[in-house]
Amino acid sequence: MTHATTANETGRLHSALIFALIIVFIFLLHLSLLRLPYFWDEAGYYIPAARDLLLTGSLIPRSTPSNAHPPLVMAYLALAWKIAGYSPLVTRSAMLLIAGFALFSLFRLAQRVANREVAVAATLCTALYPVFFTQSSLAQVDLAAAGLIFAGLDTYIDDRQSATGLWFSLGALAKETAVLVPLALFAFELFCWRRDGSNAHGDLCVHAGKHEGQKWRTASLLFPLLPLATWFGYHYLRTGYVFGNPDFFRYNVEATLNPTRILLALAMRVWQAFGYMQLGLLTLAMLLAMARPPLRDKAGERPRILLPVQLVFLLIILVYIAAMAFVGGAVLARYLLPAVPLVIVVSVSTLWRRVRHWKGVLAIVVFAFLMALFVNPPYGFSIEDNLAYRDYIRLHENAEKFLVARYPTARVLTAWPASDELSRPYLGYANRPMRVFRVENFTLEQVLSAVEVRSNFDVALVFSTKYEPPHSLLEHWRAWEQLKTRFFGFHRDLPAAAVAQILGGEIVFSESRHRQWVAVIALQKVEEAKHAIYGADDLLSR
Fold it and tell me: Can you tell me the distance from the alpha carbon of 372 to that of 312, in angstroms, rounded to the nearest whole number?
């Protein structure tokens, strides 16, 4: 056995050990979350789509309108259920394996561009960053795409061209927006290709001076377009739509292409990339550290991440910020998961290079991340970005168990996603399907419209459809609320008591957790309900 062979085997064993440690660590962090029923977009699309694939073998979902997302993650879940059985425990365990792979890929990438100390610290910070933490066990596609992108970046920097094309192709089959990364790198390679001959910008390019295989390296970055185009072509042949059903495309693309909305979304994306959920503390620490000189060890000045690599990271971050400002009806932080860990790696490397007590600074950052997991911010946010999503699930689980036990044959007025939770027992909430009459939300207009069709339902399940802080930082800026309403679907739900008054019913179950709430309203007879409407104005004006 040669020395090189022995070294390779040792390296593989070492990598396997690190991966195993990451998996154990992340499973221990999520033990209390593994049996939670499915949440929001999980229940609305990804779980039904994966279940359809399991039951029918169809890559196009049948029980829910197709969003045209590539099927890699759904196929992975269907395979996991085929092997281990269908349950939330199997689903969340399967997703944690993906999260572990993403963290391992990020570790490898950070170790390659910096060193092991930076890699360990950046991986820990990423694992505990609230958005990454919550997405780790949720059956959605953004974190899987992020992990495959990190693996592709690692092999790109190492100049393993075939592996780069493979990882980026898998990323595009996890989520279509992952193709942004190889396309951005392709443009970067063209720039370097043109300039390398004159050495005008050779020092800014990752593979400057490596003319051998340069054409294949550049061309391999376009390879991910092939499987993605094949998927979209197949989707078109099966459904007649390339990019999902018309409502999905309208909400996520057509309705977002307004200049004012783009500027607002751009500002929100910058905040999500550098400041959201206490990430601003790490960004600020990095900026302050930039004013300090590099530290010196026995080996000399501590090295930085090479400038060409930093430029690649910056390019990917900016491309994601810009692209996600143009598309995506909901400005969700999880869409930036391929970018935010790169911000963390660069920030940690800067602190390591310039701050002697950098571990103490990162301990403060980690503590802030942990606090952000449990304590909601003083502004409206998506409840899937910290453990508020667990509160939502527990509230709905308790209310819907009460409904099934107390009113098993009732027709239920409610809004999505509770409408799916009640009508689809496999989502983990109700043990039997209930008949549902759906409204869009619980605004005054929607509740009043429900009164007109009072004969279609017997009870109502009402709940907070979004988190609203007790004292928002922007609560007195009426213009901001108008902009949110116009461009981002903001609305204010009526309180449960007001809904009961309007519908002419009695609250028979209610529960709240950290500003989220749910209630079951048992309705009176139709003729009694009519008289109750006139008293609602008094309650609403209080």
Answer: 29
